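Hi there, hope your week has been kind to you so far. Do you reckon you could talk me through the fold, stretch by stretch? Thanks so much in advance, here it is.
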Amino acid sequence: MKTKQTHQARAFTIIELLTVMSIIVVLIGMLVPALNQVRKFSMRVNQAAQLKAISAGLEMFKNDYDNEYPDSGALDTSQNREDYCGAMKLAEAMMGRDLLGFHPRSRFWAAATDGNRALYQQGIPSPQDLQRNLRERKGTYIPPDNANAYRLANLYPGSIGPFDDTNGDLYVLCDVFKRNVNSGTGDNKIGMPVLYFKANSGGITHDPNDGPQLSKLNNGINYYNIYDNDELVKLGKPDGSARHTLASDFGRDESDFYEMTRNRQIDTALRPYREDTFILISAGWDGEYGTGDDVTNFDIN
């Protein structure tokens, strides 16, 4: 008489399950940093592409306007000398104050006028006047998709310091690192402003010592002036988590800016990169200007 054999299914033990789960956790822990590195690299590539698009736009601007790049000074040239820095002048030159294109009569004034009339949509009285105004312009110098133009007030939920955005037309071009959480605004994640510095055609040195004298607005002898964007940099990170290393009053004062932009291939004298054109600086992945992950239009290493 044959006996019927039964096979009982063998279940996993708790120890086996915990072992498998532990292995999965370890693998995930190893994978996440690698994925973050890939993501960072991809964003740096995208950022370099944006800076190239801006650079191309600046060259087109130069060809159209007396072989001159846009001004980057910290103040405008009006009688009131209002705060209107390099990053904001870059946005106006590339996109216009209403994002419909730069007006050729602009003097890069914070008030967005030429001294007699409004140049951009906010102050133009009628649709007919706006049509005439638009015909005077050449359009934007970079595609809107590359511009990442945002109002400064939407980037900083609190005070924007000395800058006046009463008319809602104070724009900056933001980088692609959309990691800044801004409470109380419609834009929860946007990048940091791209800093723009125009080279001083009369520059003869690149010295951080006695910067206010060497970089001063009149008769400065440094190729670049840290103060062109200093008031913007001093606003800090939008979430309030940190000051920027590149601020003129941070740590070693102005030395960080001049060391960061110094051309180390020249050891016989103090010279910056791109001494006859312009410098563009993105704050990079960490959103802080002056750290090692910044992306620039020159070889930061």
